[in-house]
């Protein structure tokens, strides 16, 4: 899951980014509306945390521009308490939900999960493939035959989730970098390869599940 924070107050945005990353999200952060719009139009996010008052383009304007361009990424508008009366305007702009500052982190996380789920009704917290069940929220996978459980890291589970959701089609390293990592990842490193390797070691030592298609990427066939 990849999130974007558009927030001009670094004191709020940076700790928030860190907290969300700690629980497994890939998080990008920009501090003005113009960069926000640019990021939204070039990347594929699962949810956007959008401050209301922003330099360049404000939150409402940005949301309207997104919706005008048929971009339906869920938006959670973040407003100061004194701007509560703007709530309605926020919803009309196309925001899916809103929180007031100072917000409670667990409430925010619950809202992020809720808007993402609403936006994609097929997203389950448990994915199945072959004899395995993948528990996305608990970073683990279970072999339903032997009942053996295997712990996975945030990135490993992110890769596996993406491959399962796109099973039977080739997924390139770039696709994985785009959806599982944030924009600070160095695209010239072997990071995808390394994580595929550790993932295989845990769940697929015989390379029967995740196949490499030379020069193109990976495929999970079922
Ligand atoms: Ca602000």
In short:
By secondary structure, the protein is of the alpha/beta class. Helices cover 39% and strands 22% of the residues. Calcium ion binds next to loops.
Task: Provide an overview of this structure.
- A hairpin with a 4-residue loop joins β7 (132-135) and β8.
- The model has no long low-confidence stretch (mean pLDDT 88).
- The strands form three sheets. The chain has a five-stranded parallel sheet with strand order 2-1-3-4-5, sandwiched between helices. Strands 6-7-8-9 form a four-stranded antiparallel sheet, with helices on one face.
- The radius of gyration is 19 Å and the shape is elongated.
- α2 packs parallel to α3 and α6 crosses α8 (191-203).
- It is of the alpha/beta class and 222 residues long.
- The two termini are 23 Å apart.
- It is built from eight helices and eleven strands.
- Bound molecules: calcium ion.
- Residues 8-9, 51, 53-54 line the site of calcium ion.
